[in-house]
Structure formats: structure tokens, C-alpha cells
Design goal:
The complex is a heterodimer. Chain A has four domains: 97 residues, Beta-Lactamase (2-Layer Sandwich); 171 residues, GAF domain (Beta-Lactamase); 92 residues, PAS domain (Beta-Lactamase), CATH 3.30.450.20; 237 residues, Heat Shock Protein 90 (2-Layer Sandwich), CATH 3.30.565.10. Helix content of chain A is 42%, strand content 24%. Chain A contains 16 helices and 22 strands. In chain A, helix 11 runs antiparallel to helix 12, helix 13 crosses helix 15 and helix 15 packs antiparallel against helix 16. Chain B contains four helices and five strands, in the order βαβαβαββα. In chain B, helix 3 links the parallel strand 3 and strand 4. A five-stranded parallel sheet of chain B has the order 2-1-3-4-5, sandwiched between helices. The longest helix of chain B has 19 residues. Classes of the chains: A alpha+beta, B alpha/beta. At the A-B interface, helix 11, helix 12 and helix 14 of A face helix 1 of B.
């Protein structure tokens, strides 16, 4: 409390006021102008308050001044006028309240807020940590702070922020390993807990660094580890003093606050870095991916795309971005794309479809995989599969060539029997014709018998024609086009053709064909080739058997939803370890043939989406079964 | 003449029957060697297909020879170069399908003539 005269000179100051200003007594200031106590803008505020009081009103302000000891103190000042009996202002009563602590707390909170804003707005880690250090240093006179970081290796110290520490000191501890006696910071990080060293001269933690500390004038050092949310040590926050000192509870709380803010800053920066790295990685991966990618909205509008080679796009980006699928893609692509989007929506699994695009340089084949993205979008990854497709087509051509070669070879083996198959109707035709000529010379001509003879000639001509037709089909290369077939019909046609071969081989044939038709999708000739090959193998395996034991059984049925065609014999069987190998090329148990028959048969069956297996019968011989998908 | 014909193919059998009857022969027809063996008709000549289900033509001839049955035989084959693993019957009369009337008549004449010489 102070009393001023109307000119603003100090008339009186109470003892408490003098103590707060670090004065020996109020007499030091008596008679001096009170406004001179204030500095800068605070002096202006003080003057305005004094002026208000002079005219009989109440003046107030908040301001700071330095005490005689040089300590900054904040005051809440209220000036009240004192009037004489006539109402004239004669003196001014000044009541000042020390609000330094309150101001400091408010400043500190504002400082913390500012640091958090710096973190949020992406300021550099160095700037943030420097600000934290300065904020803490402001709390206490004579205290210097530092943040050191722990290297990713978990062993070595790295620079954080220590703007007030001597550069030589910072440089000296950079790269030092943490440990049980590695100064306050190195030890705190090593132990993962606060290390309070009240005097470096007698604390074992400073044994190796004592000289360094003393050289730079440090005696006390309190350090708190900075720990991540995953409890990983990131660094430490330290407070240095030039004299031996133990912390009071408020100071311990302060160092905890500092460590936790620093932790947030470091973690945030690491997370940003990780994010940046992962983004860079993603961009690098994306750059390396030759596939086209499209992001589509749930309504089928193109939102974004990736194309390593923009010429691979069907349209320039500005012609499809922001537009709907149906407006930019031809129906042949738009429809399966819609279907795939619908499919992946239901199944949650990627949906694939293939299509082709005509470019000036030629036709390109593409495979699109469609998946859900971000809950409400679709990602379509489009891969160029032209090379694979061409290879597949080449393989199909080769398979057809090989199959044809196989058929020609097999028919060569059969030629005797096939000649017989033709010679029967040919004989019937010739003999009937000559019989008819004889009949004409007998009077009266037996017209009924003559007509029957001519009918037989026609029938046998047709019979020969059928044989020739089947032979021609087998000898043709064929384009491998699939058509709806009845597997039973395929089997009976083939068996008719080799009827006389079986006779010649003295092999009895038994057939168990499914009474209803067996709808499959395939190439008639190729399937007949498979059966022919299986039948000839079966005959071969029985060639040494007694004539009455040469029994061949051909069966068709439906098994587990597949059409099945099997050929069983009572022959020599197959060594158990060769049941799979027989389908390999050039593996043969026949005296004749290249050993390609079963390899070709398998490739044909597989091309039909089916399988072919061999097994030995429980009693004698082997059974080859080929299964094919039923036509829906 | 009285002739027996064994062929498993009904069309061929019927045609041969017609021609032989038109030529004035008496004909009996059999679909297999077994059928013929059971019937063992009285005939001047047997026209026998080699390739038959069950007993083959060659086996039937061998059995007849073994049993001292010397009925003249003319073989028919639709497959000139295969004889089911057996040696071709060098002394036999052969008809290679398809054959015509003249060949058939010549074979008949030759077989029956050879037979009568043999008997004589």
C-alpha cells in the first residue's frame, strides 16, 4: 500500500510493500516519482490510472516492474482518490496486489497451448522442443533445460533442443551411450525413471561426466525420461542448476509436464515421419506397378486413376474422370464391371473378369479385379494379360496339333480294322448290286426281292458314308470349338467305329451307359480320341490274356455332379508307383506308340475342365476314369 | 451246289445269300462259327468269314480238320494284311472283301474242284 501526493510523488509505503520490492525500507523511494517504478507500456497504464484518480475517479491496471533485486513482479494496482472536505483530490491511495504467480501460471498455460498448436500445425521438432525448453526455463530463474533424444538403436544420445546450454557441452554428450552411470539423462533413459542428482560432485551417475559438468558450471541436474504411449523411451528432459539443489514438489511436477509435452512432440513427429515414409513407400510402389487402377464411387463414377503408362488408358483422363461407367465404357466392359461391383459388394471378395480392347497396334487382353475401398468406393485394378492370353492360345493351338498327331497315329494303328469296317458295307453293296443284276435276267422278275436288294444297297452306302464321316472327323485338325454334347453319344459313336478292331483283338466289350443323356460341353472329336486311347490301352494290356478273359467294360455315369466315363480292363494293371506317371509324356507300357497317348488325353480332358485318373482294380486290371463338368 | 455261309455281318450275309441263290445255289446262313458247328449242315462248300466274334473262322477250319471234316472252305476277309496273329492259310481259297461275283464263282469252282481231285 502506498500513498502518493497529487503530483504522483511517493509519500508513504507500508513495510509489506517495501519487502515485496526487495527494499531495505520504504525510505529509499520516499519523495521519488511513483510512475518511474514502471517500465514501458506499464508506465503508460499507470499514468492513465493516476490521471483518473486525480480527477476523482478510480483507476486500475495490471503491470509489472522489477524489484530492487531485479526480479520481475506482476501487480494488480487500484488507485483511489483521497479528497478534502471541499471534495478536491489531495492525495492518491495506491493498493497493489502481487499477482506474479497467477500471471506466471497463465503465461505457462498459454505457452503450453502455443506448443501444442505448434505440434498440431506441423512445426519442426527442433522448433517445438526449443519452445518447450524456453517455456520451462521461464518458470524458474537460474534454471537451464535440455531435451536429448534416444537414437532408434536405443543406445546412443542424439541432440534434441538445449538453446541455453553451451554448444561445447551439447557437442560433448552427443552420441554418448546411455547406461547406469551416464549422467542424469543417460541414466534416466537407461533406467526408464526419473534421476535426481542434487550435486554432480558426489553422485556416482556423473562419475564419467563430472569434469565436463564442472567445466560448464553445472552442479545439479534432474532428468526425467520421455516415454512414448507404448512405454518406449524416446529421450529425456533435464533441468540444470549452477549450484547443488534438490527439487521441491512443484519443480518435479514441472519436469513431468515438460517431459510429457516433449513426448507428444517427438511422438507426433515420428508418426508424421512414419506417415510420410509410408506415403513415399506407397508412391514408390505405385510408380513401380504397371497395372492400371481406377477408383470408382458407389454409383460408378470414376474418381481417380493410376496409370504408369498413360497410353494404356482407353481414354485420356479428362474424358473419364468425374463421369459414369456407362457413359465412357462400351457395354462389353461396363456390364461385367457393374456385375463385378455388385458381386464384390455381396461377397466381400475381389471379383475378376477379363475383356479385350482394340488398339491401333492390335488387340490387348485385360483382367480387372474389383474390390471395395473405404467402405463406399470401389477399386478396379486392371492388368494387361495379353502375353499370358497369347501364350494360352499358342498352347491351345499346340495341344490341338499334338492331339491331331495323336489321332492320326492311332488311326494308323487301327487302319486294318477301319478298312474292315468299310469293307463290310462295300461288300454288301457290290454283292447286292450283282445279285440284282442276276435277278433281272430271271423271268418273271421278283420285284419285291429286287426292291429289298436296292434298299439294302442304299442302307449300306449310308453305312459306309457314316464310317467315312467319322474317320474324316478324327483326321481333321479341328479348331477345338466346344459344343453341347451328350457324352453317351460320343461313346457309342466311337465304340461303333472300333467294333471290328475289338473283334480282331478278340476283346469282348461290355457297356454300362447311363440311361439318360449326359450333357457336357466339349469337342466331340477330342473326347472320342480320349476314349479311343483308353480303349486301345486297355486292349493292349490284355493282349497276353486268355481270349475268354479279354473283357473291356466302358461305363458312363454321373458322379458327384460330374459326368464320368471310365474304361476298365482285366489286363496286367499298372505298377502302383506309376499311377500318376502314366500321364507323363513318353511313359508307356505299350509296345507301339510314342507314349504320348495318355499325356495328350490328359491335356484334352483338362482343357475340358475335367480330370483323368488311373487306378488298379481290386482283382485284376486297371480302370481309367475321366470326369467332365456337367453342362448346366 | 449246296453252300453254307458264315458271316456275323447281317448285311453281308444277306447279300451273299441273294447272289448265290440268284446263281442257282442252295444256301444256308450262319452268324457265327459256333452256330455252324452245331448245325453242321450238309454242304459242298463253306464260305467262312475269318473275323468272327467267339470262335474265329481259322479256328473253325482247324477244328473241322482235326475232326476229319474235309468240307472245302473259302475264307473271306475284309482286312487283307492281318490274320489275328495266326499264320495266313497259304493253301486256302481267299476272298478279299469287297469281292465281286466273278471272283466268288471262280473261288467256288476252284475250291470244289480241288476238293473233288482230293477225293478222287
Amino acid at each position: 500500500m502506498e500513498l502518493l501526493d497529487i503530483e504522483g510523488r511517493l509519500l508513504y509505503m507500508n513495510r509489506a510493500g517495501a519487502e515485496l520490492l526487495d527494499l531495505c525500507g520504504p525510505q529509499d523511494l520516499i519523495g521519488r516519482p511513483w510512475l518511474a517504478l514502471w517500465e514501458g507500456e506499464h508506465q503508460a497504464a499507470a499514468r492513465e490510472a493516476v490521471n483518473r484518480a486525480k480527477v476523482g475517479r478510480r483507476g486500475s491496471f495490471e503491470g509489472f516492474c522489477h524489484t530492487a533485486a531485479g526480479v520481475a513482479r506482476w501487480w494488480d494496482v487500484v488507485i483511489t482518490p483521497i479528497t478534502d472536505d471541499g471534495g478536491a483530490v489531495v492525495q492518491l491511495l495506491v493498493v497493489s496486489r502481487d499477482i506474479t504467480e497467477r500471471r506466471r501460471d497463465a503465461d505457462f498455460r498459454a505457452g503450453q497451448q502455443a506448443v501444442l498448436e505448434m505440434i498440431a500445425t506441423g512445426a519442426s521438432l527442433d522448433a517445438v522442443l526449443t519452445r518447450v525448453v524456453q517455456l520451462i526455463e521461464q518458470r524458474s530463474e537460474g534454471m537451464l533445460c535440455s531435451v536429448v533424444l534416444l537414437d532408434d538403436d536405443g543406445i546412443h544420445l542424439r541432440r534434441g533442443a538445449a538453446p541455453s546450454l553451451p554448444e561445447a557441452y551439447n557437442a560433448a554428450i552427443e552420441g554418448a551411450p546411455i547406461g547406469p552411470r551416464a549422467g542424469s539423462c543417460g541414466t534416466a533413459m537407461y533406467l526408464g525413471r526419473q534421476v535426481i542428482v542434487t550435486d554432480v560432485l558426489d553422485d556416482p551417475a556423473w562419475e564419467d561426466y563430472r569434469h565436463l559438468a564442472v567445466t560448464h558450471g553445472f552442479r545439479a541436474c534432474w532428468s526425467t525420461p520421455i516415454v512414448s504411449s507404448q512405454k518406449k523411451v524416446l529421450g529425456s528432459f533435464a533441468m540444470y542448476y549452477s549450484h547443488p539443489r534438490a527439487p521441491v514438489p512443484a519443480e518435479l511436477r514441472l519436469v513431468d509436464v515438460a517431459a510429457s509435452i516433449s513426448g507428444i512432440a517427438i511422438e507426433h513427429q515420428r508418426a508424421q515421419e512414419a506417415l510420410r515414409h509410408s506415403e513415399e513407400r506407397n508412391r514408390a510402389i505405385l510408380r513401380a506397378i504397371p497395372d492400371l487402377m481406377f477408383i470408382l464411387s458407389d454409383s460408378g463414377v470414376f474418381i481417380d486413376y493410376h496409370a504408369q503408362d498413360p497410353t494404356a488408358l482407353m481414354l485420356p483422363p479428362n474424358e473419364f474422370l468425374g463421369k459414369a461407367i456407362a457413359d465412357v465404357l462400351p457395354p462389353a466392359i461396363a456390364q461385367p464391371l457393374f456385375a463385378a461391383m455388385k458381386g464384390t459388394l455381396q461377397s466381400g471378395e475381389p471379383e475378376r473378369f477379363e475383356y479385350s480392347v482394340e488398339y491401333a497396334q492390335g488387340r490387348r487382353f485385360r483382367e480387372a479385379s474389383v474390390v471395395r475401398l473405404d467402405g463406399d468406393k470401389f477399386l478396379s485394378i486392371v492388368r494387361d494379360i495379353t502375353d499370358r492370353k497369347r501364350a494360352e492360345m499358342d498352347a491351345a493351338v499346340q495341344r490341338r496339333e499334338l492331339a491331331h498327331l495323336g489321332r492320326v497315329t492311332t488311326l494308323g494303328e487301327l487302319s486294318g480294322a477301319l478298312a474292315h469296317e468299310l469293307s463290310q458295307p462295300m461288300s454288301a453293296i457290290l454283292i447286292n448290286a450283282q445279285a440284282a443284276r442276276r435277278m433281272l435276267s430271271h423271268e418273271p422278275v421278283d420285284l419285291i426281292e429286287l426292291r429289298a436288294t436296292l434298299d439294302d444297297i442304299i442302307a449300306n452306302d449310308k453305312r459306309a458314308g457314316t464310317v467315312i464321316e467319322r474317320l474324316r472327323a478324327l483326321l481333321k485338325k479341328g479348331d477345338g470349338t466346344f459344343e453341347p454334347l451328350d457324352l453317351n453319344e460320343v461313346v457309342t459313336d466311337m465304340l461303333a467305329l472300333i467294333h471290328s478292331d475289338l473283334l480282331a483283338r478278340r476283346v469282348s466289350l461290355r457297356t454300362h451307359l447311363l440311361s439318360s443323356s449326359l450333357p457336357v460341353h466339349g469337342d466331340r472329336v477330342q473326347l472320342q480320341q480320349v476314349l479311343l486311347n483308353l480303349v486301345l490301352n486297355a486292349c493292349e494290356s490284355m493282349s497276353a490274356a486268355d481270349v475268354d478273359e479279354r473283357l473291356l467294360t466302358v461305363t458312363t455315369t454321373i458322379e458327384n455332379g460330374f459326368a464320368s466315363m471310365s474304361v476298365a480292363d482285366l489286363g496286367i494293371g499298372i505298377p502302383d508307383d506309376q499311377l500318376t506317371a502314366v500321364f507323363e509324356p513318353f511313359v508307356t507300357f505299350r509296345e507301339r506308340g510314342l507314349g504320348l497317348g495318355l499325356a495328350i488325353s490328359r491335356s484334352l480332358v483338362v482343357a475340358h475342365g475335367g480330370q483323368i485318373v488311373a487306378r488298379n482294380n481290386p482283382d485284376r486290371g486297371a480302370t481309367f476314369t475321366c470326369i467332365l463338368p456337367l453342362r448346366p | 451246289m449246296k453252300l453254307a455261309v458264315v458271316d456275323d455281318d447281317v448285311d453281308v450275309r444277306t447279300a451273299i445269300n441273294r447272289l448265290l441263290r440268284a446263281l442257282g445255289h442252295e444256301v444256308s446262313l450262319y452268324a457265327s462259327a459256333e452256330e455252324f458247328a452245331v448245325a453242321r449242315p450238309d454242304a459242298d462248300c463253306l464260305i467262312l468269314d475269318i473275323r468272327l466274334p467267339g470262335l474265329t473262322g481259322l479256328e473253325l477250319r482247324d477244328r473241322m480238320h482235326s475232326a476229319g471234316d474235309l468240307m472245302p472252305v473259302i475264307f473271306m476277309t475284309g482286312d487283307g494284311d492281318r490274320f489275328l496273329g495266326n499264320a495266313p492259310p497259304t493253301d486256302a481259297h481267299m476272298l478279299y472283301k469287297p469281292f465281286d461275283e466273278e471272283t466268288l464263282r471262280a473261288a467256288l469252282a476252284c475250291a470244289v474242284d480241288a476238293s473233288s481231285h482230293h477225293e478222287g
